């Protein structure tokens, strides 16, 4: 079932269009139906390109097209992967002597080696140069485009030139090259830009608010020559600022493409009871139309706790009530801002006989990290008589071990202060907490 708003976008004929799609408004559903509509009107699936910001999102889109409409030849790709395709098609124009290979990890080590060497030659702090080079490579800018002191700017230029020449000599590309090289190629070669654009009859872009500036530049060049381009996003849902994503990038696309504007305002996910809060928060970010919904939900409760312990006690009481009413444990989810608070909460739940499972990335690596921290502490202890107790203290390692111990935050801080100020031998753990540390060791 399609809404009137969705049908308008599906039938979009020509030129660029930007769709403001609030949470749960069926944008992925709409994009899949647009692909089917295009193929039903005689467009070859090989002339349709669907870009998104992550491999998982691209895979999900491909699976939905295959499962719903038996369409499996549409290009569903990340911008990086699509940029790499352009590199492979036009590698001679980029200065390579053979088709390049992706060597991201190896090149990261090579770049770090060059930075150390140049930092030593110029007698400057390695970290300072490393951070400046990282910024320049991430943003795809030359040192002259970044406001820095002349000495640092010169060092960055030397690092990047050595790094670039080494990649060309070896015919290697890294992760940043997948965007920087094709974007620069299309910008400097209008004929190549027309050729690439001519192969894309219809462009669809999902979650455009999550793209960084270089990704948006690539999308701009692709959308400029495609017969139609539908870009779907919502600046209110821009959460990837740490990787360079910004609402400003989407606004620049709108400024230069001058697209037709569409909105998806009927949410199938947000219940009526929370629409007021969602729309109020959205109004503080931009002036997009308010969301509407026919879905019934429940009225949210708000509890303000003074600390993590009080929050844990409240959640334990609430979860105990839900379990007593027959709600399955797997249907109860807890979201947190940081892993630290979630780890402490999980330990508190376990202590009260409530089983909990952590479901965020790298959960399997925690035991390894704790083990490394314990080894570092042991190393520090073994060297203490030679180095002196105040020469070096593995604060991060101690913090990690204490964090996973399940001790209250106040106790953790007290123990950390004692160890850092008076050395490991001065540590005395109360018996009621000692069992937690013992359990941590054996696990």
Model description:
It is a single chain. With 443 residues, the protein is of the alpha/beta class. It folds into four domains: 4-84 and 180-266, P-loop containing nucleotide triphosphate hydrolases (Rossmann fold); 101-170; 308-360, no CATH class; 364-442. It is 56% helix and 8% strand. It is built from 18 helices and eight strands. Strand 6, helix 10 (213-225) and strand 7 form a beta-alpha-beta unit. The protein is flat and about 75 Å long. The two termini are 51 Å apart. The model is unreliable at 433-443 (pLDDT under 50).
Morphology call = flat
Q: Biggest sheet, open or closed, and with what strands and sense?
A: 6 strands, parallel
- List unreliable stretches of 5+ residues: 433-443
Per DSSP, the total helix count is 18
The Rg value, from CA coordinates, equals 27 Å
User: Based on DSSP secondary structure assignment, what is the total number of beta strands?
Assistant: 8
**What kind of assembly state do the chains in view correspond to?**
single chain
Q: In which order are the strands of the major sheet placed? A: 3-2-6-7-1-8
**How far is it from the N-terminal to the C-terminal residue, by CA?**
51 Å
The name of the CATH architecture of the largest domain is: 3-Layer(aba) Sandwich
| Total of domains | 4
Query: How would you classify the helix and strand content by structural class?
Result: alpha/beta
Helix content: 55-70%
CATH superfamily of the largest domain: P-loop containing nucleotide triphosphate hydrolases
Output the helix-strand order: HEHEHEHEHHHEHHEHEHEHHHHHHH
Average pLDDT over all residues: 84
Q: Give the C-level CATH assignment of the largest domain.
A: Alpha Beta
Strand % is 5-15%
Indicate the CATH topology of the largest domain: Rossmann fold
């Amino acid at each position: 079932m399609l809404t009137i708003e969705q049908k308008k976008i599906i039938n979009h004929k020509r030129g660029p269009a930007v769709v403001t799609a609030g949470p749960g408004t069926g944008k992925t559903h709409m994009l899949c139906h647009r692909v089917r509509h295009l193929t039903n009107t005689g467009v070859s699936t090989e002339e349709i390109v669907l870009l998104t910001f992550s491999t998982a999102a691209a895979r999900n889109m491909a699976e939905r097209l295959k499962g719903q409409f038996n369409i499996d030849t549409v290009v569903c790709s990340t911008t990086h992967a699509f940029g790499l395709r352009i590199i492979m098609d036009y590698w001679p124009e980029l200065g390579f002597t053979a088709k390049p290979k992706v060597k991201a990890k190896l090149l990261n080590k090579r770049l770090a080696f060059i930075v150390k060497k140049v930092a030593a030659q110029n007698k400057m702090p390695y970290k300072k140069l490393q951070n400046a080079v990282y910024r320049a490579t991430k943003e795809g800018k030359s040192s002259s485009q970044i406001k820095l002191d002349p000495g640092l700017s010169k060092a960055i230029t030397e690092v990047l030139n050595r790094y670039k020449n080494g990649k060309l000599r070896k015919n290697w590309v890294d992760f940043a090259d997948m965007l920087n090289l094709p974007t620069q190629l299309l910008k400097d070669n209008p004929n190549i830009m027309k050729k690439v654009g001519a192969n894309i009859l219809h462009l669809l872009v999902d979650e455009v608010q999550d793209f960084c500036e270089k990704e948006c530049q690539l999308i701009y060049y692709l959308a400029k020559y495609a017969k139609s381009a539908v870009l779907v996003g919502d600046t209110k849902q821009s959460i990837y600022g740490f990787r360079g994503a910004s609402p400003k990038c989407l606004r620049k696309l709108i400024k230069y493409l001058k697209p037709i504007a569409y909105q998806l305002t009927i949410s199938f996910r947000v219940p009526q009871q929370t629409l007021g809060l969602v729309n109020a928060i959205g109004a503080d970010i931009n002036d997009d139309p308010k969301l509407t919904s026919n879905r019934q939900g429940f009225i949210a409760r708000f509890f303000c706790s003074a600390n993590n312990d009080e929050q844990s006690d409240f959640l334990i009481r609430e979860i105990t009530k839900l379990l007593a009413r027959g709600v399955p444990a797997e249907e109860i989810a807890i979201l947190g801002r940081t892993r630290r608070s979630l780890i402490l909460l999980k330990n508190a739940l376990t202590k009260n006989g409530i089983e909990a499972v952590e479901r965020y990335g790298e959960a399997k690596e925690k035991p390894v990290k704790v083990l490394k921290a314990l080894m570092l502490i042991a190393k520090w202890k073994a060297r203490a008589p030679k180095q002196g107790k105040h020469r070096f203290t593995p604060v991060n390692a101690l913090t990690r071990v204490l964090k996973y111990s399940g001790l209250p935050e106040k106790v953790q801080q007290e123990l950390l202060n004692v160890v850092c100020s008076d050395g490991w031998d001065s540590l005395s753990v109360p018996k009621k907490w000692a069992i937690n540390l013992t359990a941590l060791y054996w696990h």
